[in-house]
TrEMBL record:
It is an enzyme of class 2 (transferase). Pfam families: EPSP_synthase (PF00275). This is UDP-N-acetylglucosamine 1-carboxyvinyltransferase. Signal peptide: none annotated. Its EC number is 2.5.1.7. It comes from Paenibacillus residui. It catalyses: phosphoenolpyruvate + UDP-N-acetyl-alpha-D-glucosamine = UDP-N-acetyl-3-O-(1-carboxyvinyl)-alpha-D-glucosamine + phosphate.
Length: 426
């Protein structure tokens, strides 16, 4: 058990490089199993979830290793389509392997996936999509078995533009017989990245980034070298950290176009944001202003993965703001913890009413999930006094040693083990 100890009140300043996107790297790694041979995937972040995905690939018979930010996966010896329950429980993204394993082996056995506790997270849209492609799905208790002699292209209309379901169907359809069209597809940049990777392997598809994706199945894919996109959620988190500490921060290796809605909201709050090709600068010298209404929505709307961090900023803004969370039904767990630091937030169903306070104060708080944990770190940076954030393993799922990243910007964040209270890193 580790915790972060944060000495707040210091404006962040300087330049950092943002690592590759977890949510792009995970489906790309899953898709690698579709093509026999050695793949090289670059710009992969060194995160807990990535290590779980590599463990799953190894359990399926692949050789996989991460060196620096490059993963090498040799899928030639893959010989299993059964994802061990223990690994399934650790990460929801293990579900991404359904489409690829069905495509390569014609069958897959999984278990109900785990993941962050941010509300109900069903996989019905994944299963319906695979069924539409001809897969037979059998569920008994926690076990799910799917098989198909040959997947066949189909027209699929998603009830909701689910990111994971869109990705699973794209992967399965890439090697199905005939043409698949996904209507009401998710439009996230990570979907475009997956399409680009699949095309590099020889897949035929078009439309990622719009709500209609058309895929013409091919019999075989070939291994390739691919570089994943920068992490837009880590970028957005650092933008908000810069703003709440009234700092001046430059973020490199980013794609500003992926953060248009976030930049728009920050500008409405009075934060200065300037962009260049792959650079974003955030400067904030005065107290941010309230933003009347921020509503999370599928891309290109405001990302749910930045809602907790935005709540910290609005908690310190002048005036009253409302945040409406429309993607997950349990993503306000950070509210109680922020309240313990002095924030004034009231919730009603999926809306949070935030009365900005001039400052928050250091406290011992618990990180309940990945982005809630990141929000508490940001609150700690802005707080007067010392903040202790517990359950850091949640944060490690999505930020590669957040204390080092923030340390490069002058923040005082140290990691300790709960038992020995001994500093591991600073
Ligand atoms: N949903 C269903 N049925 C399904 C799939 C989804 O009802 O079969 C519902 C979910 O319950 C949820 C909503 O649809 O209410 C959105 O889920 P979606 O499938 O779009 O999300 P996901 O694929 O599970 C990815 C990211 C999440 C991010 C969401 C939304 C990855 C690995 N994860 O999850 O990232 O919040 O899209 O943008 O890509 C994070 O990084 O902290 C994180 C949670």
């Amino acid at each position: 058990m580790e915790k972060l100890v944060i000495e707040g009140g210091k404006p962040l300043s300087g330049t950092i490089r943002i690592h590759g996107a977890k949510n792009a790297a995970l489906p790309v790694l899953a898709a690698s199993i579709m093509a026999e041979g050695t793949h090289t995937i670059e710009n992969v972040p060194d995160l807990l979830d990535i290590h779980v995905m590599l463990d799953i690939l190894r359990a399926l018979g692949c050789r996989a290793e991460l060196r620096g930010d490059t993963v090498t996966v040799d899928t030639s010896s893959a010989n299993s389509s059964h994802i061990p329950e223990e690994l399934m429980k650790q990460m929801r993204s293990s579900v991404f392997l359904m489409g690829p394993l069905l495509a390569r082996f014609g069958k897959v056995q999984i278990y109900q996936p785990g993941g962050c506790a941010i509300g109900e997270r069903k996989i019905n849209l994944h299963l319906q999509g695979l069924q539409a492609l001809g897969a037979v799905v059998e569920e008994s208790g926690h076990t799910i078995v799917c098989w198909a002699k040959r997947l066949k292209g189909a027209d699929i209309v998603l009830d909701f533009p689910s990111v994971g379901a869109t990705e699973n169907i794209m992967m399965a359809a890439a090697m199905a017989e005939g043409i698949t069209t996904i209507y009401n597809a998710a439009r996230e940049p990570e979907i475009v990245d997956l399409q680009n990777y699949l095309i590099t392997m020889g897949a035929k598809m078009i439309g990622a980034g719009t709500d209609t994706i058309t895929i013409e199945g091919v019999p075989k894919l070939t291994p390739t070298t691919y570089k994943v996109i920068p992490d837009r959620i880590v970028t957005g988190t650092m933008m908000m950290a810069a703003a709440v500490t009234r700092g001046n921060v430059t973020l490199e290796n980013v794609n500003p176009a992926h953060l248009t809605s976030v930049t728009h909201v920050l500008k409405r709050a009075g934060v200065q944001v300037t962009t260049d090709d792959d650079i974003i600068n955030v400067t904030c010298h005065t107290r941010p202003k309230a933003v009347e209404r921020v509503v999370t929505a599928p891309y290109p709307g405001f990302p749910t993965d930045l809602q907790p961090q935005m709540m910290v900023l609005l908690s310190l803004a002048e005036g009253i703001s409302i945040i409406k969370e429309t993607i997950f039904d349990g993503r306000f767990k950070h509210v109680d913890e922020l309240s313990r630091m002095g924030a004034d937030i009231r919730t009603d169903l999926n809306s949070a009413f935030i009365r900005g306070v001039p400052r928050v104060y250091g406290a011992t708080v618990e990180s309940t999930d990945l982005r809630a944990g990141a929000a508490l770190v940001i609150a700690g940076l802005a707080a007067r006094g010392t903040t202790v954030v517990e359950q850091v393993h949640h944060i490690d799922r999505g930020y590669d040693r957040i204390e080092l990243l923030l340390g490069q910007l002058g923040a005082k964040v140290s990691r300790y083990t709960e038992v020995a209270s001994k500093s591991l890193l600073s």
